[in-house]
């Protein structure tokens, strides 16, 4: 049964689907950044092992560059996590609104159904009363 809330429901559902897709995309980005961070940490550990064996192999410029990459990745991870948190908050709000609209639509349907049932019952009662009065009138003749 159609309700006046159907359009709002569809809009909110599409909005929620869009947020869900954005969260999935951002979570993929975050996972990629975490893999990159793991790679940088492994490179630093490997370099530390090599440098421990031969001081001549130590490269302060390379270490500075890799640590700069690590700081960049950390910053991008923090920004990505903040975006995910914001999207999740927005999705929670949108879901709450969606549930409110769904509840209103269900209430509308229930009220419409009650009204239709009452109208049908009223019609049946009226038809029964008419039949009773006819039978009474014919019995009185």
What does this structure look like?
- By secondary structure, the chain is mainly α.
- It has one domain (6-110).
- The protein has 2 helices and no strands.
- The chain starts with 5 loop residues before the first helix and ends with a helix.
- It comes from Novosphingobium silvae.
- This is Flagellar FliJ protein.
Task: Put the structure in a nutshell.
By secondary structure, this protein is an all-alpha fold.
Task: Record keyword descriptors for this entry.
141 residues, mainly alpha
Task: Write down the secondary-structure element order.
Answer: HH
**Biggest sheet details:** none
Structural class, please? mainly alpha
Q: Please report which band the strand proportion falls in: under 5%, 5-15%, 15-25%, 25-35%, 35-45% or over 45%.
A: under 5%
Average pLDDT number? 91
Tally of distinct domains: 1
Considering DSSP H and I runs of 4 or more, what fraction of the residues is helical? over 70%
Number of strands: 0
Number of helices: 2
Q: Outline, from the CA principal axes?
A: rod-shaped
| Uncertain runs | none
Radius of gyration: 35 Å
The end-to-end distance, rounded to whole angstroms, is: 49 Å
Task: Provide the fold topology.
Layout: H1 6-53, H2 60-140
């Amino acid at each position: 049964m159609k309700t006046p809330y159907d359009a709002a429901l569809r809009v909110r559902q599409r909005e929620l689907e869009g947020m869900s897709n954005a969260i999935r995309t951002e979570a993929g980005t975050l996972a990629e950044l975490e893999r990159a961070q793991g790679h940088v940490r492994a490179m630093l550990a490997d370099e530390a092992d090599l440098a421990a064996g031969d001081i001549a192999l130590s490269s302060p410029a390379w270490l500075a560059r890799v640590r700069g990459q690590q700081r960049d990745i950390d910053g991008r991870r923090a920004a990505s996590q903040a975006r995910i948190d914001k999207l999740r908050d927005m999705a929670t709000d949108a879901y709450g609104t969606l549930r409110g609209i769904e509840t209103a639509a269900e209430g509308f349907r229930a009220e419409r159904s009650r009204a239709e049932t009452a109208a049908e019952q009223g019609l049946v009662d009226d038809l029964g009363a008419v039949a009773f009065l006819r039978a009474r009138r014919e019995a009185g003749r």
